Amino acid sequence: MGSMFRSEEMALCQMFIQPEAAYTSVSALGEIGAVQFRDLNTDVNAFQRKFVSEVRRCDEMERKLRYVNAEVKKDNIKVADIYEDLPQAPNPREIIDLEAHLEKTENEIMELSQNAVNLKSNYLELTELKNVLERTNGFFFDQEVSANNPDATRNNLIVDDTPTARTGSHLAFVAGVIQREKVPGFERMLWRVSRGNVYLRQVELETPLEDPATGTNIYKTVFAAFFQGEQLKARIKKVCAGYHASLYPCPSAADERDEMVKGVRIRLEDLNMVLNQTQDHRSRVLSTVAKELPRWRVMVKKMKAIYHTMNLFNMDVTKKCLIGECWVSVLDLPLVQKALSDGSAVVGSTIPSFLNVIGTNEAPPTFNRTNKFTRGFQNLIDAYGIASYREANPALYTIITFPFLFGIMFGDLGHGLIMTLFGFWMVNGEKKLGAKKSNNEIWNIFFGGRYIIFLMGLFSMYNGFMYNDVFSKSMNLFGSSWSINYNVSTVMKNKELTLNPSSVDLGTEVYPIGLDPVWQLASNKIIFLNSYKMKLSIIFGVLHMIFGVCMSVVNYNFFKRRISIVLEFLPQIIFLVLLFAYMVFMMFLKWVQYTAKTDFQPHTPGCAPSVLIMFINMMLFKKGQPLHGCDEFMFPSQSSLQLTFVCIAVICIPWMLLGKPFYIMYTRKNQLKKHTQNGTVNGSPETNDESNKSAVHGDHDEEPMSEIFIHQAIHTIEYVLSTVSHTASYLRLWALSLAHAQLSEVLWNMVLSIGLKQDSYKGAVMVYFVFAAWAFFTLAILVMMEGLSAFLHTLRLHWVEFMSKFYEGLGYVFQPFSFKIILDSDDDIE
Fold first, then answer.
1. Binning pLDDT at 50, 70 and 90, where does residue 398 land?
2. How many other CB atoms are there within 10 angstroms of residue 211's CB atom?
């Protein structure tokens, strides 16, 4: 948890690697994933770097893998993903073998694919020819009748009043196949070029044909066009070519057509057998390739990442060493050095690679080491802003505060149980579910935050137990502590009765834990829960903000800005405690001091003052009007104490406003005076100016005093106003909790009670359908929508109300060179 409290200490290192050991060393560094390299060739074009040719070779291999993968998917062959025992990056000798193997595999598959396309094209042509021969029998019968009967021919022509239509000469024809959607245009074009002197017959094929290239279904129509004259024949063929119609030879004699059909059918059977054998051979080849495809993917990805990283290195002037710069966690320095040694040992390099830590003024990246449990909470913080280097990390505390504040708003034992079971299902099956890579973004978000959902469900169950709320109903586990001192007739005849809180039933003064179940039946339940949950939200809100302000001390102390503890933290915490923590104190005092079990009139419940009104009067220096027999204040000298608190809080405002700017002004004057005296004794005027410039550099030293005063004024006004607005913002805990409970109660009374209130047998049937509707609305509205709403409000309370007290979030994330990250981010090679 050390790196969760604060980001790890980083070091800028310079590594020197021999060229022959560079590939294996970078491969070893990619396996451990502990190094973030810097680009030392920013002024060099991407196409002019040393290893650009190797990167292009990897791109070519990836192209071949994409082609092979597409062919495998085309045949619906399953490719098994590998998540364990991933292959290492191939060494330079294996790269040549892998490249040759991929080349051979691609050529073989391309040859098989081309042969299959050619065979399917032949099969398509023979199928179309068979359909033309079989479907044109009726056409020729009509044509023969038309030749013997000129009047019939004239009636069947598109335009029937032509000289050629009146002749009894034999008509010529062309027969073929055209796509069905092109038939209307094809028919109109024939009419135009022939001026209606074409007799067109057509019939649609019911069975679709397969496109040899794409494998999609295409619907076609067999046609025969009868005409007279060679000139018209040439025009018709041009139209057929323009519409990509396939023309086939078709004898006019019936016996010749029958003979030709028999021959075509025999050829189709032979071709179909060859196609099946070809497809079986292709399937065997692709099945063998599919077993190796995941390994090839991983190897090529790693190889490409290695060469891409080596392009970030710089070659020294002697060209005998590669120099690289990288950020490394101090804890991982021995691990990185070992990886360099292992990389050199693999190739048998006589000169070892070594690592040097170099100094720098550059801000290092932020690296918070996480695991599968803490990663989700860290992502919540990183979504707001990456922590500045070595800044206190809010994610550590968010592990508890986030699900707890969510549970306050989502406090229902039943709904919390549903969320807990959903989170437990994802946590328990995380290996199996994580292995199924999904492109559904919503599911990936849920699965990534599975531990957050699980904890939110647990805390919702806890708060629901404290609220004694289960699907808007209460549990009577310990028996109610209220005593009903009325007889049966009085209870039955009176709709509303007041229970005396001062009475004791069975020796139990208060309900052991949570809310008494009798409140579920009380007519003033809403009034009570309003007051109860509103006060709880203020209490937890003030505690949360105080904790956030106290966290700033951790940063001030670590970065050695201890003067800020006096000039910023102290006035802030005093202002917050004396006003708002004091209001919380009055709430507890009110709960303890005013009771029904007392005979002292000022301490009876009727004399309990409003804490909010008392706080407003305190800020406005006003006096309240107490009821007869009651005291205005809760304890003696409260008026004087409140006046003192307000005065001290007012003093804190100029303390925050002027303390830091005056301190910076005083420090600058002392430093300038000191360096002026040193310059007069030891240096020339030029040296004095340079020393003065370097000496006064630091926090705010480059800013003029006017900007420092303005910045501090904005910071002070923001803090003072935010203490009020942020405290009010925590009332969303009360509002969402009350809304969730009331919505759950409405859903129970308006939906489920319909089936439960039926006395006849119809109720037994109706309850099934009513329960289904109630369960659907419960999951869709109360769990999904209300859960999302509570999640977003909880996120806002952490980002704004809590983290703004101490968190800067101006850093940049540590992005190590890691094969695991590369493979996870680009899981699909397509």
1. very high
2. 14
Helices (H), 683-785: 685-695, 705-729, 731-747, 753-756, 761-777
CA-wise closest residue to 746 among 790, 771, 714, 778: 778
CB 752 within 8 A of CB 771: yes
Give the other-Cβ count within 10 Å of 322's Cβ.
23
Closest C-alpha among 405, 403, 397 to residue 381: 397
* Closest of 83, 229, 254 to residue 165, by C-alpha: 229
* Segment holding 329, helix H or strand E: strand 322-329
- Domains of the chain, earliest start first: 1-37+319-367 (3.30.70.240), 115-276 (no CATH), 373-478+542-547+722-813 (no CATH)
Q: What is the pLDDT of residues 94-112, one digit of tens each?
A: 889 999 999 999 999 999 9
Three-state SS across 194-217?
A: HCCCCEEEEEECCCCEECCCCCCE
Q: What is the Cα Rg of the chain in Å?
A: 42
Enter the pTM of the model.
0.81
Sequence-ordered strand ranges (E) for 27-105: 35-38
Please count the other Cβ atoms lying within 10 Å of the Cβ belonging to residue 118: 12
Residues 6+ apart with CB under 8 A from 528: 519, 522
Q: What is the DSSP letter of 627?
A: P
List beta partners, residue 40: none
- Lowest model confidence (mean pLDDT) among 166-175, 295-304, 452-461: 166-175
Of 578, 566, 567, the residue nearest 647 (C-alpha): 578
E strand or H helix that includes residue 615: helix 611-620
Tokens 């310990």, located at residue? 478
Nearest to 292 by CA among 542, 42, 65, 124: 65
Pairing of strands 10-17, 322-329: antiparallel
Q: Does residue 305 contact residue 822 with C-beta atoms inside 8 Å?
A: yes
**Cα–Cα distance, 231 to 14 (Å, whole number):** 84
Measured CA to CA, the distance from residue 772 to residue 778 in angstroms comes to 10
Report the alpha-carbon distance of residue 245 to residue 253 in Å, rounded: 23
Task: Give 674 or 717, the one with higher predicted confidence.
Answer: 717
Burial (CB < 10 A; 0-12, 13-18, 19+), residue 433, is middle
* Residue 791 and residue 446 in contact, taking contact as beta carbons nearer than 8 Å: no
Q: Which two tokens stand for residue 591?
A: 């709960």
**30 or 134, greater pLDDT:** 30
CB 27 within 8 A of CB 89: yes
Q: What 8-state DSSP symbol labels residue 477?
A: S
Q: Which helix (H) or strand (E) holds 14?
A: strand 10-17
Spatial neighbors of 121 by CB under 8 A, at least 6 apart, are: 212
Average the pLDDT over each of 63-67, 169-173, 213-217, 543-547 and give the range with the smallest value. 169-173
> What distance in Å separates the CA atoms of residue 821 and residue 370, rounded to the nearest whole number?
14
| CA pair distance 265, 245, nearest whole angstrom | 22
Task: Tell me how far apart the alpha carbons of residues 91 and 347 are, in angstroms, rounded to a whole number.
Answer: 9
- Phi first, then psi: give them for residue 237, nearest 5 degrees: -65, -35
Question: Where would I find the beta strands (DSSP E) of 474-540?
Answer: none
